[in-house]
Amino acid sequence: MSIATQPRTAAAHPTAATSTYHHHLGTSVHLLPQTDQLRALHTVIRDRDARREDFVFYAGRIIRLLTEAALNLLPFEPYDVTTPVGRTYQGLRFAENLVGVPIVRAGESMEAELRAVVPGIRIGKILIQRDKTTKQPRLYYTAFPEDIATRQVLLLDPMLATGGTALAAIEVLRDLGVPEEHIVFVNFITCPEGIAAVGERYPGVRIVTSAIEEGLNENAYMMPGIGDFGDRYFGTDR
């Protein structure tokens, strides 16, 4: 799958974060090709009046595209097989074991599509929530395979806004010995501020996303935005 190098939704007024994310495009930041089909899918799920079943279905289609693009960034090794007519096909297979790590709870919306593409993949979990007093991300729960330090990690979370939660999750993985270069952050939508935050602290982490927003407003909401992805996906929005 080819990766686009320029988004259609750039910030109207360049900022330091905007300049930073442009620097990362095509290297550590991989944006899905901004095709008319992808924009049509986004049109459905960005509509505030979209039915939940439509939101889930069309979000799932985009998540599948993101998953395939993320897998294409992982290392492969030669692997030959014999075809039904007795010839040798010089193929490839994943060079290292994989693990998917959704950030609970919104990240779990991406788990089913990952399992559909990679049946039997190991799944870890990270639960991080913002402390009501300090406003800082707080780690509540983790569960990982014992050998996670030797695996390629697909970190799953649909929203990358300020980057606080993503940075906390990456720090957890790094503390367990996972190299930055072994982490691919599979993300539904992001913004220049989030890309800048992750890129500055963990430049080896690759980000795969379907849209780069204009930026954050004064309340740290992404604009034009999609709302609370987890609430809309799981039906807990009001």
UniProtKB/TrEMBL annotation:
<keyword id="KW-0808">Transferase</keyword>
<comment type="pathway">
    <text>Pyrimidine metabolism; UMP biosynthesis via salvage pathway; UMP from uracil: step 1/1.</text>
</comment>
<keyword id="KW-0328">Glycosyltransferase</keyword>
<dbReference type="InterPro" id="IPR000836">
    <property type="entry name" value="PRTase_dom"/>
</dbReference>
<protein>
    <recommendedName>
        <fullName>uracil phosphoribosyltransferase</fullName>
        <ecNumber>2.4.2.9</ecNumber>
    </recommendedName>
</protein>
<dbReference type="GO" id="GO:0004845">
    <property type="term" value="F:uracil phosphoribosyltransferase activity"/>
</dbReference>
<dbReference type="GO" id="GO:0005525">
    <property type="term" value="F:GTP binding"/>
</dbReference>
<keyword id="KW-0547">Nucleotide-binding</keyword>
<feature type="domain" description="Phosphoribosyltransferase">
    <location>
        <begin position="33"/>
        <end position="236"/>
    </location>
</feature>
<dbReference type="InterPro" id="IPR050054">
    <property type="entry name" value="UPRTase/APRTase"/>
</dbReference>
<dbReference type="Pfam" id="PF14681">
    <property type="entry name" value="UPRTase"/>
</dbReference>
<keyword id="KW-0342">GTP-binding</keyword>
<dbReference type="InterPro" id="IPR029057">
    <property type="entry name" value="PRTase-like"/>
</dbReference>
<comment type="similarity">
    <text>Belongs to the UPRTase family.</text>
</comment>
<keyword id="KW-0021">Allosteric enzyme</keyword>
